[in-house]
Amino acid sequence: MYKKNQIQELIAKRAAKELRGSCVVNLGIGIPTLVAKFIEDENVYFHTENGLLGVADVDENQIDPNLVNAGKLPVGETIGASFFNSAESFAMIRGGHVDVAILGVLQVDQSGQIANWAVPGKNIMGVGGAMDLLVGAKKVIVTTTHTSKDGKSKLLRKCHFPITSTRSVDMIITELAVFKVEDKTLNLIELMPGVKLEEVREKTEANFIVRIKEGAK
């Protein structure tokens, strides 16, 4: 059985495979932040909505307290990185200049709509740039554990929490499976290592179509 950090890295590593060639990528809070450690292509540029294009890992001995990402975690900068204010950063997002956004979620429904900014009755961080990224990013990938802490499916027929946007995401990656969203329908295209289809069916409330490619089991 995988530990929590192993599960998160498994999901992040699979998401990293979707980033190829020259592209601008925005990483959300949580599992998405781990994706950067699995990228070796120098043509993948990471963007953060608080104003940096060219985000890099930083050695703990070289942390600059003034240099953080949107989740307030310390980051480094690549050679040639660009700094700008928040208004310009969101203009980049809304203007369609972010190629891929990788987001965490609280829930996702079978049409690909997500809820990731509010839990009724609870005080959480809020929406951040998620709404803007769902509208402006060319491709949106969700990275999430398949179930919540109490074992309930996070892939639902309909989200119970307030949705973040009416736009459907393009892909959902969990520790159990990979789904593509096409025509507001979930398509199971890949099982994660060691996972059986029966387990995915058992732990998924949402309806989905099995379209596993040859060699993807």
From TrEMBL:
Similarity section: Belongs to the 3-oxoacid CoA-transferase subunit B family.
Transmembrane in keyword set: no
Transmembrane segments: none
Top-level lineage group: Bacteria
Pfam families: CoA_trans
Protein name: Succinyl-CoA--3-ketoacid-CoA transferase
One GO molecular-function entry: CoA-transferase activity
